Amino acid sequence: MLETLICALFTILPDYLYRRFRQGKRIGIEINLFSVWYELRWGITGCAIMALTVITTLFYFHPATNSVVSYFRTVTILPQAGGRVLEIYVKNNELVNLGQPIFRLEDHSQRAQVEAAKAMIAEADASLKVAQTDLTEAIASIAGATAALRQAEEELERNVTLRDQGSTAVRLAEIDRFENLVAQRSAQRDAAIAQQAETQERIDSLIPAQKDNALAQFDAANAELEKTVVYAGVTGRVEQLSLQVGDYISPVLRPAGVLVPVTSGRSRFQAGFNQMAAQVIKPGMIGEIGCMTKPFTVIPMVVVAVQDVIPSGQVRPSDRLLDPQNNQQPGSIMVYLEPLYDGTAEALPPGSNCIANVYTDNHERLEDESLSTPHKIALHVIDTIGVVHAAGLRLRLLLMPVQTLVFSGGH
Coiled-coil stretches, from where to where (predicted)? Predict the structure, then answer.
């Protein structure tokens, strides 16, 4: 409408002024409701052609859309294992920090496993003390067996010397007895040495392995115990938390609620433009948005990224062949917008529904001296008619509350 009125100022109005003051035709007589087309045919035709040209140029080089949303993610509050709720630490719609506990499940079996693992660690420590005592006893046994063996060897050596000297004071049976005693005490010493080696092996390898196993079981049991407490994975606000003590929560059957991160969706908007804008919208372009959550306010934006694929072409492997005619609606170009100035969009809650314009700027191209005059004029016209689109955006923002609250019944 605004474009048509502007075009009428350069077509229909001059045609009417010519016929009224140059040809002397008067409204209501020569120019009436029935002769208006014939009398103003050149102005009306020119207005229609110019309006269509301006509107086409305007919407092509300065794209607009009604589909602008600030998407935000949510984090599902789920335990790692199922169980009944024992204690709840937060309330619905409460702001929680990263790592803050939200609720706790029953943990009787997990605590029993932790205590059992602690008992195994204590048992391993006690076994180490007993083994160290056994090692001391084995060393003492070796010393005693060595001394007894040395004494028996000396007695055997003395009797053998007397026998070799032909003394009648020694008997052969006594020599045999000492030989058997030496062999016996040598075996006792070897047994004591083996006992020392076995005890040392227990101290060096077996008992540490048992303690390591007990520590691993303690860590595993403690990890299972920690799973009974559900912590906030991000800083955010708890929503839809409808828990009561005694409720059964499962990571598969029933989530506890959702957590909305405080930074998600803030100061970042996603706009869907028609596919005609694919070759026009580029990162760095300036735009404007107006949102229903903050009426009568225009927020300058800048294009930070343009998605290089169109969602309507997304496919998943299936047992059916694709048929392009099944795509009833063409997909849109996803454009990411951020505020041109910091802090201007902080009052907009995530999920706000907005409208947006993006403006083509040929200022840098106009500095190229190699451009022809008609080309420069065309670029100037393209940049200038962006003002019309900006005015149209502001007019729509003025009418938005009336349209929403009055004509749409507040929906």
Answer: none
